[in-house]
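Entry for iron/sulfur cluster complex. Fields follow.
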Amino acid sequence: MKNIERTINETYTPSELVINWHITEACNYNCTYCFAKWGKPNELHRSLEAIEKLLDNLADYFIKGNSSLKQKLGYENVRLNIAGGEPMMLGSTFSIVLMLAKQKGFKTSIITNGHYLLNSKFDLPNNVLDMVGISFDSQRYDVRCEIGRVDRKGNSLSSDDLKFALKKLSSTQKGIKTKINTVVNKLNWQENFSSLISEIKPYKWKILHVMPYGEDELLISKEQFNYFVNMHSNAGLPIFAESNSAMTESYLMIDPKGRFYQNSSSGPGYKYSECINDIGAEVALKQINFNHAVFIARYFPIESIAILENKVVAS
Ligand code: SF4
């Protein structure tokens, strides 16, 4: 791993640091493989004061400060990525978070299942979002139902819904970048998305290997994952693939309680810091293992990544 780290540091500097805030565990879908399950914690977003304090703590350390992390990574922007659960379930609070984040100097993005983008009652303020990531796992309704990507009434985002939602968003969020996230699993690893992704023309199509958190029956081998990647690699699509190891210790993540947390490389489960609002971002970050080499590797496109025996290396 040391050699990999050196190679990456010598050849690449990300211009953007991404902080993922999993703001809520609530979701209108019920995906089998979902790992956004924290057991009903007291979520920080219930207090606007706590939200603002958290954003100030993060801005002070990551944007205004000159931390060793900033020096090591050399990033120019900090993007606050709001994920869940389904963050748009928070309604007006969700809009306030985005507006405050913009005021404090963050770039903003969300990861959403897209359901509430179709809802005409939900008015996102203009120009608060720089990027949207929409999770989309199958063009087939029956497969989406089997995965659990469906609400209680049987509503599920179709390919046409996805196209409509993106069109609507781009009319209120100037210059918004689109990312499609697809979790490759036992039910979709042979499905061809080429024509849909070609039509949508996202900035990124992120392909993720299903993680071993949910039902084992959806897990696939690394050969099946690579089959999916290879099936799409000659179509000129903006593919970014992540193997399991690239997803371990490679994200800066904040949980609904406002703590940094990290996938553990030594076994299942997470490591948590204390609440960032209690001890500040710098001390909280030291309490988890943040692997900046793998973080940087996440920004390489598939062409320059070799997925070898579950290790991501720069080629
Ligand atoms: S849509 Fe996302 S947050 Fe909701 S259940 Fe599925 S994976 Fe989990």
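NOTE: The two ends are 14 Å apart (CA to CA).
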